[in-house]
Design goal:
binds zinc ion, alpha/beta, binds 5'-O-[(R)-(carboxyoxy)(hydroxy)phosphoryl]adenosine
């Protein structure tokens, strides 16, 4: 049994996964109610909430799985990328358990775990593949030759897709988090009502994304002024629905085009998609259509493994099999590269 701990952003999560990748328990304490009035995650508040919740969440995960600490083969903990203060809470809990129990510690890349959710869902090997991670903090395309060791092909040069959903929701006066709210509003809107920009759409050599221009285009359409200087509650519901649908379609168009371009470039015929935005119903529908028309196999993470959770850190089993355990000088990192604590980091 593996105990996995996740605290990279605003979800405190723990899960127990067996070596057949069966999720025995997955506990997620969401902080949405804490952050929603700010329209985004407030890092210091997130760290404090993690401190309050991490031990009860771990206890609950063990209890639900019917597993004792002695039954654990290893402790997996997400160390990067994410909010440093938040990550440190999970890492400290993970290191302490590993030290006290004398169990191996495994460092998890949160983004790779998002893609591994697809492997778990498939129930069999799905690699080699191209992988897309679309979340609140990242929009990354990877070449995935095997279940670990993903190679970054390209990412966003400004906002992540989820961040654009959250910011556009705020512009439209919709609830936080913005993704589900925009999806809901878009149900009654027209995706062709407004023609918003689609960055790098036809530039097949450029496996990069840009969503900040799209966000600004929505803002100009709504008011031509910053939020706060117009009355968001006075926007007509149909106008909001059309804006939401047109914005969502622009994001989906670009995501699909870049996936297809990456598949062609890397000569892969499997696409896996994970991350919070992969929960989007329109994206899932359009991905299925593209898989048919472009003849590739599609594995999208199941809804419960799209938004942040600890179960997807089952990728630790692969790392353990490769002998890739971590030492207690393991450190967190805001970015995509893993770090160890060194003199420079301790000062
Ligand atoms: O992966 P995740 O839970 O956290 C990060 O690692 O960032 O992703 C959260 C993001 C948020 O920006 C949220 O608005 C977006 O995923 N999201 C969605 C949907 N559900 C969550 N975006 C579009 N449509 C959805 N249904
Ligand atoms: Zn995530």
């Amino acid at each position: 049994m593996l105990l996995a701990i996740e605290s990279s952003c605003d979800e405190t999560a723990a899960a127990v996964i067996d070596e057949n990748l069966v999720v025995r328990s997955s506990v997620i304490a969401s902080q949405t109610v804490i952050h929603q009035r700010f329209g985004g995650v407030v890092p210091e508040m997130a760290s404090r909430a993690h401190v309050q919740r991490i031990l009860p969440v771990i206890d609950e995960a063990l209890e639900k799985a019917g597993v004792g600490l002695d039954d654990l083969a290893a402790i997996a903990v997400v160390t990067h990328p994410g909010l440093v203060g938040s990550l440190l809470v999970g890492l400290t809990a993970g290191k302490t358990l590993a030290l006290v129990l004398g169990k191996p510690l495994v460092a998890i890349n949160h983004i790779e775990a998002h893609l591994y959710a697809c492997r778990m869902h498939a129930g069999k090997d799905i690699f080699p593949a191209v992988g897309l991670v679309v979340s609140g903090g990242h929009t990354n395309l990877y070449d995935c030759p095997g279940p670990t060791g993903f190679e970054l092909l390209g990412s966003t040069i400004d906002d992540a897709a989820g961040e654009a959903f959250d910011k556009v929701a705020s512009i439209l006066g919709l609830a936080y988090p913005g993704g589900p709210a925009i999806q809901k509003a878009a149900e009654t809107g027209s995706p062709t009502a407004f023609r918003f920009p689609r960055s790098f759409l036809k530039d097949a050599d450029r496996l990069e994304f840009s969503f900040s221009g799209l966000k600004t285009a929505v803002l100009y359409e709504v008011a031509g002024k910053p939020p706060g200087e117009y009355d968001r509650s006075a926007l007509a519901p149909q106008y909001v629905a059309d804006l939401a649908a047109s914005f969502q379609e622009a994001v989906v168009d670009v995501l699909i085009a870049k996936c297809v371009q990456a598949l062609r470039k890397m000569k892969r015929d499997v696409l896996c998609v994970g991350g919070g935005v992969a929960a989007n119903a329109r994206l899932r529908q359009r991905l299925e259509e593209a898989a048919l028309s472009e003849s590739f196999s599609l594995v999208v993470a199941p809804l419960e493994l799209c938004t942040d959770n600890a179960a997807m850190s089952a990728i630790a089993w692969e790392l353990l099999a490769q002998g890739r355990t971590a030492e207690l000088d393991l450190d967190v990192s805001a970015g995509l590269v893993r770090r160890r604590a060194g003199p420079a980091n301790r000062s």
